[in-house]
Design goal:
Layout lengths: L1 H28 L14 H8 L34 H16 L5 H10 L25 H12 L7 H5 L3 H15 L5 H11 L5 E2 L2 E2 L14 H9 L11 E6 L6 E2 L2 E2 L1 E7 L3 E5 L5 E5 L3 E6 L10 H4 L2 H12 L7
Antiparallel strand pairs: 1-2, 3-6, 3-9, 4-5, 6-7, 7-8
Helix pairs in contact: 2-5, 3-4, 4-5, 4-7, 7-11, 8-11
């Protein structure tokens, strides 16, 4: 019996050792994960640590013959497909982006764009499936992303830290996107825009487009993340002037009902004879003043759905916050 137990024990030790060896071998095949120690500096060396570590870039990319991933483009020189390493390649890609957009792209602009908005330029024969690196589960900080870009610049190109710290107008737009994601707890502004268009645009105007039942949100980002968050979680907690909820009380002293809808909502127009109330994003009801006893402001009710937060997943909520914090333009 003792011999059997001993053999089983030895077998288990060998098995565990085998698993550890396989894990180590796979790590080495993919380039070898590097561990970051504290804050990463914005240098090629710092970027290398992120690329082969926290950023998990090596799970999809390789650099020349370092690594074995082929799912996404190789960032080094690799056969006829990639005769230039990423630093030199970015210079050529910037020319392509300039031709398509009509904007003066630099190599750094292209690299920033490729991380902030990877779907803007998709390499032929590859899919648009790159992860959003500044959103969960990767959640790189702005400095970590800058370091990765510096590392990419060092692959056959010129490292330009100055361009990262003093971005062009093109790059600044993408850095704003990344900053918004961080402010919203790691949200993705790109997906947030999709959530906004599906859920919010029928009632709100943004950059001159959308519905008019709710306030213009073109400059909502100036109010800060706390205010935006509260306006979604508790829409009746505060009202933008002009968007209070009015309840129409009829001559009989009861809340008026028309077309099977309670006449309560935003007062969109008023003249000497009538009042027009928007009861939802699609319905406006005009009531003669001769039929009205009084208009009462309901401080506990908003035209915005009170269960809005229940309509959104946690990710949708974070993403739409990230999108809204970016809206700091002038009202149209």
């Amino acid at each position: 019996m003792g011999k059997v137990v001993g053999k089983v024990f030895i077998f288990l030790i060998v098995l565990v050792a085998l698993f550890m060896w396989v894990g180590s071998a796979i790590t080495k095949m993919t380039g070898g994960e590097k561990k970051a120690g504290g804050k990463v500096e914005v240098t090629p060396e710092g970027g290398e640590t992120i690329y082969w570590g926290k950023g998990r870039c090596y799970t999809c990319h390789s650099i020349g013959d370092r690594g074995s991933a082929v799912r996404c483009p190789n960032h080094g020189v690799w056969g006829d497909k990639f005769p230039l390493a990423m630093g030199a390649r970015a210079v050529e890609r910037a020319k392509e982006r300039e031709k398509v957009t009509g904007k003066p792209y630099t190599a750094t602009d292209y690299l920033v764009e490729s991380l902030a908005d990877p779907g803007a330029y998709v390499v032929d024969s590859f899919k648009n499936e790159m992860a959003v690196v500044y959103a969960p589960p990767i959640s790189l900080t702005a400095d970590e992303i800058k370091a990765v870009i510096a590392y990419m610049q060092s692959q056959g190109g010129d490292v330009n830290i100055e361009a990262l710290n003093n971005p062009t107008e093109i790059s600044k737009k993408f850095w704003d996107r990344i900053a918004a994601a961080g402010a919203a707890g790691g949200g993705d502004p790109g997906h947030g825009e999709e959530v906004y268009m599906t859920t919010c645009s029928s009632c709100h105007i943004l950059k001159g487009e959308g519905g008019t039942a709710g306030p213009d949100l073109s400059n909502i980002g100036a109010k800060g993340i706390k205010n935006i968050s509260e306006s979604i979680l508790q829409p009746a907690a505060s009202f933008t002037p002009g968007y209070e909820t009015y309840v129409v009380i009829g001559k009989d002293g009861k809340e008026m009902v028309r077309e099977s809808k309670k006449v309560a909502g935003i007062k969109v127009s008023e003249d000497s004879e009538s009042v027009e109330i928007a009861v939802d994003s699609d319905t406006r009801i005009k009531v003669l003043k001769s039929e009205i006893k009084e208009l009462v402001v309901d401080k506990n009710k908003s035209l915005m759905p009170e269960d809005m937060i229940e309509m959104l997943t946690v990710k949708d909520f974070q993403d739409v916050l990230a999108f809204m914090i970016m809206q700091k333009g002038s009202k149209q």
